[in-house]
Amino acid sequence: MFYYKTQQKVFEIGGIKVGGNAFENPPVLIGTIFYHGHKIVVDGKQGVFDKAKAEELIKVVEDLSQKTRMPAMIDVVAETPNAMVKYLEFVSNATKMPILIDSPDLNIMKTGFQYAKDAGFIDRVIYNSLTAKSKDDEYKVLQDYGVKAAIALLYTDRIIDVDSRIKNLEVILSKAFAYGIEKLLVDTFVIDIPSLSAAMRTMIEIKSRFGLPVGSGAHNAVSTQRKAFKERFGSDGYKACELAASISTLVVAADFLLYGPIEAAKEIFPAAYTVYNSYKYLARRKEYLMQL
């Protein structure tokens, strides 16, 4: 387990703390709803979905969060502005969890922020996500709507390179605070198996140098190669590989985990509970494997 000499930042978003020294706070677990291909979505363009099933999925997350004391957030994806409004209206009323507004489209993003501001929950919104290629217009939208929290995705073509990820973070940092982004959560970018270890190494480097909360969508290490993993290991083996990828980041004390489809909560929360409760006793005793 790691202890960082650099002061670690802890951000509170919608009543949930994220960040800090290793296992100071439990990792925040973030599931995605209304994603591409989600079976509960009837019409992605119009935002038509099975409300009963959506409510059930959110309730499962809330129950698991309460049972394990692992904090949760929900990532809302939408194909159109109209769909984003419908999804946010539903989710914001169904739960008090912080909400990630997830869209690469500036118009969809604007619509989502406008609805959140009008409905009075902009303070529990996180934008997913800024990259090193984000233009000033994108930052300006966040500033205009008073969005204070964002994910910084360290996307890079050099997928196993740590330095390129750090450089991308420096680019984002050079703009984020100038535009009023006070709470930056760093996604160290996982796209396949080789990138997973690079992303974890980057987490350690970022916490050591910048003290920012770190995490990733570690399930991508496996899910982007779903067909190959299922052919080799079968459906159950595929799920085991995906879970292992996600949990490996928590072993190196990631502050948050984007675990993918919200349905995976049933496996993720108990697994995260096991890792966190094992390590937190060492943290309380101030016994560390390494000080950085």
UniProtKB/TrEMBL annotation:
Q: Which domain of life is it from?
A: Archaea
> EC?
2.1.1.86
Keyword annotations of the record: Methyltransferase, Transferase
Return the SUPFAM superfamilies for the record.
Dihydropteroate synthetase-like (SSF51717)
Fetch the InterPro entries from UniProt.
Dihydropteroate_synth-like_sf, MeTrfase_MtrH/MtxH
Picking any one GO molecular function of the record gives: methyltransferase activity
Carries keyword Ubl conjugation?
no
Gene Ontology biological-process entries: methylation
- Family, per entry: Belongs to the MtrH family.
**What name does UniProt use for this protein?**
Tetrahydromethanopterin S-methyltransferase subunit H
Query: Could you tell me which species this protein originates from?
Result: Ignisphaera cupida
